[in-house]
């Protein structure tokens, strides 16, 4: 019988998590996260996972230069949080993470923000699509519906007065561009006018790409 993904030892043992991350980030051996030297370092016998760089004379671990750097939260908790965030279609809240990982809400909030920030596309990210590619676009509203709906109620026979499915003033408008078989970009917009998201700046999608409104 196949084991569940969460039973993997790297999610429960900090040492196993560190070894896994070292194999992923250092396939050719330790690399100093401060000066980038690869061959002039030596492991510290008294501190597992720590290395002494003989070039810059600084001690480093595999977490230097990553979102895990300078965190007192065990590395296995970080990896489980990242796995949960990637495996959950609708995302993971800080409250849910703190219950599942067995850490404080404050720590879970900090972890979720760091991981989400790391998942954002960089400024040098290439535009979506390309010649012959298809990009789909759709919009939605995010946040609590604590405002009043815009529009009048209508009388429907057999149902009575029905509230309109209208916009809510307090909700944030969001648009997502999805390249078929490719990446996804989401961003906040100020207006939901029809076709507004298709006129988004060129740096988000290439001008020759066919865009479809969902």
Structure, described:
The chain is α+β, with helices and mostly antiparallel strands and 214 residues long. It contains 4 helices and 9 strands. It has helices spanning 14-25, 75-87, 94-101, 105-119; strands spanning 41-43, 51-53, 59-60, 134-142, 154-156, 160-162, 172-179, 184-188, 210-213. It starts with 13 loop residues before the first helix and ends with a strand. The model has no long low-confidence stretch (mean pLDDT 80).
Please render the helix and strand layout as text.
Layout: H1 14-25, E1 41-43, E2 51-53, E3 59-60, H2 75-87, H3 94-101, H4 105-119, E4 134-142, E5 154-156, E6 160-162, E7 172-179, E8 184-188, E9 210-213
Parallel strand pairs: 4-9
Antiparallel strand pairs: 1-2, 2-3, 4-7, 5-6, 7-8
Helix pairs in contact: 1-2, 3-4
List keywords for this structure.
four-stranded mixed β-sheet, alpha+beta, 9 strands, three-stranded antiparallel β-sheet, elongated, 214 residues, 22% helix, 4 helices
Spans of 5+ residues with little confidence (pLDDT < 50)? none
Count of DSSP E strands?
9
- Percent range of helical residues: 10-25%
In spatial order, strands of the major sheet run 8-7-4-9
Rg value: 24 Å
Q: Report the structural category.
A: alpha+beta
Shape: elongated
Q: Name the average pLDDT.
A: 80
| Main sheet specs | 4 strands, mixed
Succession of helices and strands: HEEEHHHEEEEEE
What amount of the residues lies in strands? 15-25%
Q: What is the helix tally? A: 4
**Distance linking N and C termini:** 41 Å
């Amino acid at each position: 019988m196949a084991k569940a993904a969460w039973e993997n030892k790297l999610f429960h043992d900090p040492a196993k998590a560190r070894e896994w991350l070292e194999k992923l980030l250092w396939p050719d051996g330790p690399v100093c996260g401060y000066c980038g030297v690869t061959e002039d370092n030596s492991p510290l016998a008294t501190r597992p996972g720590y290395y002494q760089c003989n070039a810059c004379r600084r001690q480093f671990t595999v977490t230097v230069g990553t979102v895990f750097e300078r965190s007192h939260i065990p590395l296995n908790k970080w990896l489980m949080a990242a796995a949960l965030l990637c495996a959950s279609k609708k995302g993971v809240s800080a409250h849910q993470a703190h219950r599942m990982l067995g850490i404080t809400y404050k720590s879970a909030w900090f972890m979720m923000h760091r991981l989400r920030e790391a998942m954002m596309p960089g400024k040098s990210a290439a535009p979506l699509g390309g010649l012959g590619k298809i990009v789909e676009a759709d919009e939605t509203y995010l946040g609590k519906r604590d405002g009043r709906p815009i529009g009048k109620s209508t009388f429907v026979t057999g149902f009575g007065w029905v509230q309109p499915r209208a916009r809510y003033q307090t909700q944030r408008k969001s648009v997502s561009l999805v390249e078929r078989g490719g990446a996804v970009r989401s961003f906040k917009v100020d207006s939901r006018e029809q076709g507004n998201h298709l006129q988004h700046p060129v740096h988000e999608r290439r001008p020759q790409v066919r865009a479809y409104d969902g």
